[in-house]
Design goal:
With about 200 residues, this protein is of the alpha+beta class. It contains eight helices and ten strands. Helix 3 (about 40-45) runs parallel beside helix 6 and helix 5 (about 150-160) runs parallel beside helix 7.
Length: about 200
């Protein structure tokens, strides 16, 4: 996995963005979207930490709608296993392995947003690493200060496959604040998708 410093060296810098910036960018976008990643954890805990980038998230099926919404403002690039491909028109197919879109105004400017493509329909979310784990889409989201975020227990599940130092910090800060239902759901999901995960003992 390429870390942030290597990604900057290879592909260029990132502009610091906040959830409020994403809300302004996506004003008028008529499809579901929310903030994921470390910012989603911070919204829940209230504990700030440094962020490498901002991760808005959309349904994988809504890429065309996002491109139309951003037309003339930000270019959309597929970020797939170390390869970047500009989505210059609708003929550029999205590989099944691609899970992120990077956005920037032009090749001469920093990246601004790392859009996560969610495996979900307008009604149902499915965990991309284990299709046995599903929830109604509405149940994986919550609203804080007028902005929709991925629920912390779902975000921690996504962070569990490869636990980086910042992911462990997010877990350590977030887990004690989860209510019984959220804690129980995360424990069950980890046991199913990642048996023996070290977080299970702490939950």
């Amino acid at each position: 996995m390429t870390d942030h410093d290597d990604a900057v060296r290879l592909y260029g810098p990132w502009l610091a963005r906040t959830p409020r910036d994403a809300a302004a960018l996506l004003d008028g976008y008529d499809r579901p979207w929310w903030i994921a990643g470390g910012w989603a954890i911070q919204a829940f805990t209230g504990v700030p930490r440094p962020h490498d980038d901002l991760d808005p998230s959309i349904l994988r099926s809504d890429i065309g709608a996002l491109r139309r919404h951003l037309d003339g403002r930000l270019d959309v690039w597929q970020a797939d296993s170390g390869t970047l491909t500009a989505m210059v028109d609708d003929s550029v197919a999205l590989p099944v392995t691609c899970e992120n879109l990077w956005l920037r105004p032009s090749g001469a400017e920093p990246w601004e947003y790392d859009v996560i493509l969610m495996h979900a329909t307008p009604t149902t979310w499915t965990y991309k690493r284990d299709a046995r784990i599903t929830l109604p889409l509405a149940e994986i989201l919550w609203i804080h200060d007028g902005i929709t975020y991925l629920r912390p227990e779902v975000q921690l599940l996504h962070k569990a496959r490869v636990v980086r130092p910042k992911d462990q910090v997010d877990f350590d800060v977030c887990a004690p604040l989860l209510d019984d239902r959220s804690r129980g759901w995360l424990r069950s999901a980890l046991a199913l998708a990642h048996p023996g995960h070290p977080w299970l003992g702490e939950l």
